[in-house]
Design brief:
The chain has helices at 2-32, 37-46, 50-62, 66-77, 80-86, 88-92, 98-103, 107-113, 121-148, 161-177, 182-198, 204-222. By secondary structure, it is an all-alpha fold. The N and C termini lie far apart (39 Å).
């Protein structure tokens, strides 16, 4: 148990380094909007989707309707449906932990889980602890941002780039391990085309849909 937890912690360190600072920024925003620290903790515990939590500050401050909040959350996080397809079999074998894994998958935990070797139950346990630790990092950072942000002012400009760096490193790692680079190249091309056609605000969902369809057809032809 201790060895698995240690491996999970080591794997989660890049997430910790980014989550703590980004969630602190979220906590500071909540404080500036007039919400106490326990609101940040409650939202992080129940919503737990970083990008949407930042948007939620504005929605709550403006008195937006529940329907507006729900629809915004669905549109912003629909990409998680595509992530989940990668680990359907893994989650099904995790028993009672399956629901927790489904509801705590983020961009970062997905990326880290993709780098784990296929080691059966050990891999499943590492995935669980990575998800659990990542959630703790975010909640701790959100509360710390509320409490310390106003006391110790500091400039966090550019700290969110650590997320981009994490994904670039993981992409390179997957590129080196992959037998075929066609899926990666297809994803890049489709993403660039969608970015040029529909713009940076709306390109993510259509690029995911098109890329998934193309890769499904490609895999069917290989078989």
């Amino acid at each position: 148990m201790g060895n698995i937890f240690r491996k999970a912690f080591i794997k989660s360190i890049p997430i910790m380094c980014s989550y703590l600072f980004v969630s602190m920024a979220y906590g500071i925003m909540m404080e500036n909007a007039g919400f106490k620290w326990y609101y940040s903790l409650l939202v992080s515990l129940t919503v737990y989707t970083g990008a949407y939590q930042f948007v939620l500050v504005t929605l709550l401050s403006s008195g937006a309707s529940i329907l507006t909040m729900a629809l915004t959350a669905f549109l912003m996080n629909s990409r998680q449906s595509f992530y989940a397809l990668t680990f359907v079999d893994e989650f099904n074998r995790m028993g009672k932990r399956k629901l927790y894994m489904i509801h705590t998958m983020t961009d970062e935990t997905y990326a880290v889980n993709c780098t784990l070797p296929d080691t059966g139950k050990e891999k499943q346990s590492i995935m669980f602890w990575v998800a659990f630790l990542s959630r703790c990092y975010w909640m701790i950072g959100a509360v710390a941002g509320e409490i310390l942000g106003q006391i110790i002012p500091f400039d966090m400009t550019g700290i969110d780039f650590c997320m981009t760096a994490l994904f670039v490193i993981i992409f390179i790692d997957q590129w080196e391990k992959a037998e075929s680079h066609i899926p990666a190249i297809a994803g890049i091309v489709i993403a660039v085309v969608c970015l040029l056609v529909v713009g940076p605000q709306y390109f993510l969902l259509p690029s995911l849909i098109i890329a998934s369809a193309v890769l499904v057809v490609w895999n069917m032809r290989r078989k």
